[in-house]
Specification:
With 285 residues, this protein is of the alpha/beta class. It is built from 11 helices and 10 strands. The strands form 2 sheets. A 5-stranded parallel beta sheet has the order 3-2-4-1-5, sandwiched between helices. Strand 8 and strand 9 form a beta hairpin. The protein is globular and about 60 Å long.
Length: 285
């Protein structure tokens, strides 16, 4: 393929198994003028494996806003640049959003090169519904904020997907167990596509105990997929999006105000939303 000047290529790289990179990705990474990488040392080893010697620059969460302006100027000067993350598809819980927005605003071209993603890879083997799902990325690191977020998601009927760091996996699983109950279906995908890959579908209670008993399951990158909340008969007629909107508003507003605003935003009946929110509040008590 021909590389276009002044273009930002968003390039997916392997999660772990180096055989998962596409031929198109290798071609672009070899041909662009510069590669913007989340961790240049990590990416240098990846590129060395493929025999690619393209110049690397850093773009990570701590410098993205500042670095984006420089990258846009490079593009405007006619450079071609590829953006990669440490693994998988860039911008999915990784840096790059501000850069992509700046490139759009500058009237320059972006070209996506699809490929590996921990989100879709985990979903594909989870054994849980995938027709509707909610991606939450990384939960807050602090316990109080994490528990508050999980409580707001307890009534979410869609499949839930989270990323988690190994040093927080046990605390997160316990908080999920407290928020969603022992019997909520739970799937752990750990070290996807790597030598010690873990794929386990069970309940939150059993998964908590299993991970706690095996230190090996507390290492590496983790994706957690949870089954959605089961609907009760009195919930029929309230769409998933209305329930999610209500749950988010309940975090910041009194119950009546949350129900009234959710009704305005979703077009659902205020009384039905209020009744549902009241029952949820009573059950939380």
């Amino acid at each position: 393929m021909s590389i276009e000047a002044g273009t930002l290529y968003i390039v997916a790289t392997p999660l772990g198994n180096l055989g998962d990179i596409s031929a198109r990705a290798l071609e672009v990474l070899s041909a662009v003028d510069t590669i913007a990488a989340e961790d240049t040392r990590h990416s240098a080893r990846l590129l060395q494996h493929y025999g690619i010697n393209t110049r690397l620059i850093a773009l990570h969460e701590h410098n993205e806003r500042q670095a984006s302006g420089g990258i846009v100027r490079r593009l405007q000067a006619g450079e071609s640049i590829a953006l990669i993350s440490d693994a998988g598809t860039p911008l999915i819980s990784d840096p790059g959003y501000h850069l992509a927005r700046a490139v759009h605003e500058a009237g320059l071209r972006l070209v996506p090169l699809p490929g590996p993603s921990a989100l879709t890879t985990a979903l594909s083997v989870s054994g849980l519904p995938t027709d509707h799902f909610c991606f939450e990325g990384f939960l807050p690191a602090k316990g109080g904020a994490r528990r508050k977020r999980l409580e707001a998601l307890a009534a979410e009927p869609r499949t839930l997907v989270f990323y988690e760091a190994p040093h927080r996996i046990l605390d997160t699983l316990q908080d999920m167990r407290d928020a969603f109950g022992d019997e909520r279906p739970a799937f752990l995908a750990r070290e996807l596509t790597k030598s010690f890959e873990t794929l386990r579908l069970t309940t939150l209670a059993e998964l908590c105990e299993w991970v706690a008993a095996d230190p090996n399951q507390q290492r590496g990158e983790c994706v957690l997929v949870l089954g959605g909340a089961e609907r009760r008969d009195d919930e029929e007629g309230l769409p998933d999006e209305a329930l999610r909107t209500l749950a988010i508003l309940r975090e910041e507003l009194p119950l009546k105000q949350a129900a009234a605003l959710a009704a305005k935003l979703t077009g659902e009946k205020k009384n039905a939303l209020y009744k549902y929110a009241l029952e949820q509040e009573n059950s939380d008590d």
